[in-house]
Amino acid sequence: MYRISKILLLNIAVYAGWLFALVDISTTRNALTEQIEAVVLEHAAKGFTEAGLKGEIVAVHLPRNLPTGTQEVFIKPLRKFMPPRAAGRYVIPLDIIAGNSAIKINVTVESVALINGWQANQPLKRGTPLNPRYFKRKIIRVTQRENEYFDGPVLPRNRQLAASIGGGHMLKYQHVEVIPAIVRGEKVTIQYRLKNLILTSPGKARREGQIGDLIPVIATETGKQLAGRLHANGIVVIE
Length: 239
Fold this sequence. Notes:
single chain; mainly beta; Thiol Ester Dehydrase, Chain A; 1 helix
C-alpha cells in the first residue's frame, strides 16, 4: 500500500486518448511503483472530473506481480474510470507493457469526497432562516453519505432549519425546509364560496402550511373547526 502525500507526474504522456507512462526500471523498483501511482492518480482525477464529482485519492494499493528486470515499460489504463460516487474503494486495471509482452495488474484505490459545505457558527434552533451570518463555508472530507450534505454555492432565502443543529455541525439537506407561508396559531381570513356568494370570517390556522395546502382552521367567532385551501395573504378558502 502506498499512502499519497503528493501527486507524482513523471514522464506521463497522452496518446490516442490513453494515459501512458514510460519508465526505465533498470535503476530501482521504486521508479516503477512511482510511475504506476502517477498514472493512477492522473487517470482517477480525469474520471472524477468527467463524472462531475469532487474526489481525492488518499491511498493506492499495488499488487505483488510487478515486472522486474532491466527494461523500459509502458503503463496503460485498460478502461475509463467513471466512479458512481466520489468516496469509495475502486479497482483500476492497468497493462504494463514490456517489449512484446504485457502484464495486467489491478490497482486498488481509496478515495474520499470533498464537500464544500456550510458549517453552523453556533447552535441553531429549528425555524432559523438560512442566513449567511449563521454559517461559514468549510471543505470537509467524507468517506460515506456524501450526497447528504448541503453544498449549494449560496444559502437560499426562502429556507429555514427543519431541525435544531449544534455549533460546528455541517448543514445537510435533511436540515433544510421551505419557510411555511403560515404557521400554527396565525390569524387567517376564512372565505366561504357558495356559487356567486362569498362570505368571510376571522379564524386561526391549526397547523403550518404552504400556499395550495389543505390546512385545518378554526373559526374565531363560532369555534367551528374547518379545512380549506390556503391562498395568498392568509386567505383560507372553504368550497
